[in-house]
Design the sequence.
């Protein structure tokens, strides 16, 4: 079974993966939420390199990163709000990738799932752009942009 980190809140996904026998780290939602689904809580602040470095050290080894840190951005939002959200989302997505890449590179079958949303096409486009760049830079890793609904299927296929 795989060691999985879900960076971003998703207790339902964590519950499914724990039930399937995976070791799951939940990077948000709090200690009680993680305990409730049988996952391990991992304090994770995507705006802090220090927090991410400490989190990677705590995990130790990692096979699957579910990078679910981006917030939806809608085309109807004011330009300044879109810029702020994109900046935070892309920086958070990249910080999480960079912090956990060393662990993933040591895995026999490393997978990165950057989660995008059908309901937020602007955010999805940005997630896809980052995903393509990292997939090219790290060809040994399986790096994909997925919809949230696809995550369990991809992890179970590994």
Sequence:
């Amino acid at each position: 079974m795989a060691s999985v980190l879900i960076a971003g809140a998703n207790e339902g996904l964590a519950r499914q993966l724990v039930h399937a026998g995976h070791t799951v780290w939940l990077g948000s939602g709090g200690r009680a939420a993680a305990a409730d689904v049988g996952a391990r809580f991992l304090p994770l602040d995507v705006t802090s390199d220090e927090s991410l470095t400490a989190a990677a050290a705590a995990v130790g080894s990692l096979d699957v990163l579910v990078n679910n840190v981006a917030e939806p951005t809608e085309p109807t939002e004011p330009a300044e709000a879109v810029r702020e959200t994109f900046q935070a989302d892309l920086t958070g997505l990249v910080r999480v990738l960079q912090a956990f890449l060393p662990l993933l590179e040591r895995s026999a079958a490393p997978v990165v799932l950057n989660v995008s949303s059908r309901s937020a096409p602007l955010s999805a486009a940005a997630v896809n752009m980052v995903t393509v760049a990292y997939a090219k830079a790290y060809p040994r890793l399986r790096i994909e942009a997925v919809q949230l609904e696809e995550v369990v299927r991809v992890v179970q296929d590994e």
